[in-house]
Write a structure and sequence with these properties.
By secondary structure, the chain is an alpha/beta fold. Helix content is 44%, strand content 15%. It contains 12 helices and 8 strands. The longest helix has 19 residues.
Length: 253
């Protein structure tokens, strides 16, 4: 089956509200021509979600959040519940990003709970998995990804899983300028789809979009996106400049 390419920009802890609105205006102009061929989403910092949501109205760009808490509300100072994000017009939530895992101690079990919260609130998860450099050099990549994936997806059925987005992001390639070769990335993406087939069956596994994340740029996007099991990209630094991000989007369009 044909899966619609999905390019998402993770702005991380960058851009003031004013800067965010400037970038949104530039993006709307730059990628308006790919409305039907590529799905696009951007994930600004929490402080900019509401104004960016307004600025994206009537556009072909969806809004994503970079994280959420597993509880709907409560005594969790500094956290944000999924229903709060839904109220702002958020469609996707990035969960389990390697920076969240490494810097804030997030676990597969925690990502699993957050995924349930995101679904309950009426949004969809972008679930991140990936190995460190030490794990790759020890030839443990596929085993690590399998453990993460099964931990994050446990308890969800095929009907839910068909809507999920999985992002394979080798930790050693994030923000380093290093990128997995198209062959390396395709190998892991194919393994992920095989694991999804085991969990939910072939029909559902063929519906799930698997993004690649890790120093994706305009000059390597076309090669990566040409692989049969790479259905899009989760873009970091290159999503902070409209021209760079638009070039990645257009690499598939």
């Amino acid at each position: 089956m044909t899966r619609r390419c999905f390019i998402a920009g993770n702005w991380k802890m960058n851009k003031s509200v004013a800067e965010s609105l400037v970038l949104v205006r530039e993006l709307r102009n730059a990628i308006s021509v790919v409305r039907d061929r590529v799905e696009v989403a951007i994930a600004p910092p929490f402080t900019a979600l509401h104004p960016v949501s307004k600025a994206l109205e009537d556009s072909n760009i969806s809004l994503a959040a970079q994280n959420c808490h597993a509880a709907e509300s409560g005594a969790f100072t500094g956290e944000i519940g999924a229903p709060m994000l839904k109220e702002l017009g958020v469609s996707y939530v990035i969960l389990g990003h390697s920076e969240r895992r490494q810097l804030f101690g997030e676990t597969d079990a925690g990502v699993n709970r957050k995924t349930a919260a995101v679904l309950k609130a009426g949004m969809l998860p972008i679930i991140c998995v990936g190995e460190t450099l030490d794990e790759r050099e020890a030839s443990r990549t596929l085993a690590v990804v399998e453990t993460q994936l099964k931990g994050c997806l446990g308890g969800f059925g095929a009907a839910e899983g068909a809507k999920f987005v999985i992002a394979y992001e080798p930790v050693w390639a994030i923000g380093t300028g290093k990128t997995a070769t198209s062959r390396q990335a395709q190998e892991v993406h194919a393994h992920i789809r095989s694991l999804l087939t085991g969990l939910w069956g072939a029909d559902t596994a063929q519906q799930v979009r698997i993004q690649y994340g890790g120093s994706v740029k305009a000059d390597n996007a076309a090669e990566l996106l040409s692989q049969p099991d790479i259905d899009g990209a989760l873009v970091g630094g290159a999503s902070l400049k409209a021209a760079d991000f638009a070039a990645i989007v257009k690499a598939k369009a």
